[in-house]
Amino acid sequence: MFPQSVPLRSPLLEEFRTNKLRNWELRDIAGHIVEFSGDQHGSRFIQQKLESASSEEKQKVFDEIVPKNILQLIQDVFGNYVVQKLFEHGTQFQKSRLALEMEGHIWALSKQMYGCRVVQKAIECILPEQQAKIVRELEPHIMDCIYDPNGNHASRSVIQKLVERVSPERLDFVHTFRGNVQVLATHTFGCRVLQRAFEHLPEVMTAPLAEELYTNALDLMANQFGNYVMQFIIEKGRPQDRAFVVSKLRGNLFHFARHKFASNVCEKALQYAEPEARRALVDEIISSKPERKLILSMMQDSYANYVLQSAVKFADVDQRKALVNLIRPQLEILRRLPNGHSSKHLASSK
């Protein structure tokens, strides 16, 4: 196969790239907006100028792009940023027209590496009626969109953006999460969508989702992605949901403290649990038999030592004193070991 030829730059673009002394304005590149938008340096120039451009200048840029070249630029590595700037700084009419040109292509754009960024920017900038049209186009593809890697570019999926920005009454697709919560919670992108749902949607929509999480709470704590959902519920969830998740740690704290993923949930629980629940968790460490052996084991463990530090940091005064009295005799033992980093952290937290 022959290598693909690189499109020739116009003399104007060549001059722009080489003549750094000239004070360039948007009017200087009239008739070349599309070409400049597809060039790394030209795109950056147009983006900067659009931020302070007059209404007339914005319209001239808009007219060269819409309608013939809009879909091309939306999917271009550099052109997509120009379209995003038009959504940010254009008039409401221009934003609406841009969104209109995208209609019928939302699903395809949401899967495309650069198009998904423009879809998300559009959701932020357009009126509710057009947001609803985007929702309707994506409704048949919700799960596919969540699981598609490009639809979730930079951890900000199109679906996440809809959940964050669109009125809940327009988000009928959330009912499709029911029956799929465990799968979503254990998926690299799905877990983020769930967190945004719990953060932005009303209780009537999220309560059934939380109920599904309860059925496998312990497994989710130890899951690579599910632990983030559990952490989120502990930190920002409804009090009753937080209480339930924390309660599942009772009797399991030491086991989970040594787990790569579940240890993060333990730390969050010690920080955000209600005082009575926190006391119970800390008591689990203090009252263990033999307690000094457990303390030393936690201090030596790559993950549990951070849980122990959290226990010291967030415990009530009396419990903190008891923990320190258990930890202090073990510090000298750990200081003699080659890998005594955990003892240093614990010594500083006393």
TrEMBL record:
A cellular-component GO term for this protein: cytoplasm
Gene Ontology terms describing biological process: nuclear-transcribed mRNA catabolic process, deadenylation-dependent decay
Extent of the Pumilio repeats: 28-63, 64-101, 176-211, 212-247, 248-283, 284-325
Domain named PUM-HD: residues: 8-350
Keyword set, alphabetical order: Repeat
Any one GO molecular function term: mRNA 3'-UTR binding
SMART domains: Pumilio
Name of protein: PUM-HD domain-containing protein
Annotated source species: Collybiopsis luxurians FD-317 M1
